[in-house]
Amino acid sequence: MRKPTQIERLYLDFDGFFASVAQQVRPELRGRPVGIVPFSGGKASCVIACSKEAKALGLSNVMPVGEAMAACPELVLVPQEPHLYRRAHNALLAEIESVVPIDAIKSIDELTCKVDPDQRHYPEDLGQAIKRTIAENIGQHITCSIGFAANRQLAKIACKQDKPDGVTIWYPDDMPGPLLTVPLSDIPGVGANMAKRLVRSRIHSTQDLYETEPKQMRKIWRNVTGERLWYALHGYDIQAPESKRGMFGHGRVLPPECRSLDGARGICRVLLTKAARRLRREGFYCSGLWLWLDHGAGNWGGKRILPTVHDDQALLSEFQVLWEQASSQLPRRPTIYRIGVTLFDLSPANSRQLDFLLADDSERQRWEAINTAIDLLNYKWGKTVASVGFWPRENLENIGGKISYTRIPSAEDFW
């Protein structure tokens, strides 16, 4: 296992990304505390992201609107615009790539780069070159924090130390000094539950964690992730194996006017159709469908095991079965707050196993041909002009185009 003696990685994190993008395109928001909310028209109950100015006043992401407004009456609430964030993300990647090759996109607002050998001796210059390129070609109101270190994990930790708009450089010769002053909660993988496990193991600080044996960390994490983290903290070039796709799905918090059974059903059908489109675009079939509902008084969930399929007709037919089950088991006139659909038990399209007992191959081929025609038609027009079954024309605000920590939507997700 190799232990670098020079800076080899940088980690970049955009500051208050959603709010910063809004400030860049809307001059009236610049310099003001901004909170991004899920819905327009005062329907939102949660601030999902804050601007740098709002964070400086004590606000944080995922904060109730009432609490945020009480703490900061001048807060400006702005509805989310995922399509705008996607476009800004792509533009920013192009500018950064003109300065340094991007190694991996970690989320909509985070990425990591390998530092070329001729740039390793001047990380400050490289960081400033990235910031200057963004300011000149995108705008001055989207800023980023950058961390440099021997490996990606250390660079990520360093990146968080001088936010917003900072550059933190951890040379291998200076380690572990800077790392030991970092709060334990800033270490990747140390969430609330893991912190409790660490306390039970008498680990109360980053220095305690650093001085723990690798096998002990493996035992605490209950898998090899803990041991990998030990080697990363000690400066080794350690990379986790690439994860494989396990499922496709969409979830959504419903706007108030859609929290009835009929309103939720319409949106859920759209979410399922969009998940099926992603399944086909990425070359997979599935053999399982899971539906879940949060109705305030509790949660309902159900699943169906399917033949190996990826067409809308097969999935929507099974969805209808699940929806009828949910309708019969939920309280009378429930208020449904959140819904979600997941397609699981995936198999690559080039290795589909036919179901001999169902003898469904000819029927599936016809529906798959219909779906191919529908997908091509929608792709030609850049919007949903054809679908299997009804397609609602209202309450589709950003549906299927949600920005998550693990996925950046494509243009097709907004059709």
From TrEMBL:
Domain UmuC: 9-191
Catalytic activity reported: DNA(n) + a 2'-deoxyribonucleoside 5'-triphosphate = DNA(n+1) + diphosphate
Gene Ontology cellular component annotations, sorted alphabetically: cytosol
UniProt-listed GO biological process terms: DNA repair; error-prone translesion synthesis; SOS response
InterPro entries documented for this protein: DNA/RNA_pol_sf (IPR043502), DNA_pol_Y-fam_little_finger (IPR017961), DNA_polymerase-Y (IPR050116), Rev_trsase/Diguanyl_cyclase (IPR043128), UmuC (IPR001126)
GO MF annotations in UniProt: damaged DNA binding; DNA-directed DNA polymerase activity
Known EC number: 2.7.7.7
Pfam families according to UniProt: IMS, IMS_C
Superkingdom, taxonomy of origin: Bacteria
PROSITE patterns: UMUC (PS50173)
Family designation: Belongs to the DNA polymerase type-Y family.
Subunit text: Monomer.
Function: Poorly processive, error-prone DNA polymerase involved in untargeted mutagenesis. Copies undamaged DNA at stalled replication forks, which arise in vivo from mismatched or misaligned primer ends. These misaligned primers can be extended by PolIV. Exhibits no 3'-5' exonuclease (proofreading) activity. May be involved in translesional synthesis, in conjunction with the beta clamp from PolIII.
Protein name according to UniProt: DNA-directed DNA polymerase
Species whose genome carries this gene: Qipengyuania algicida
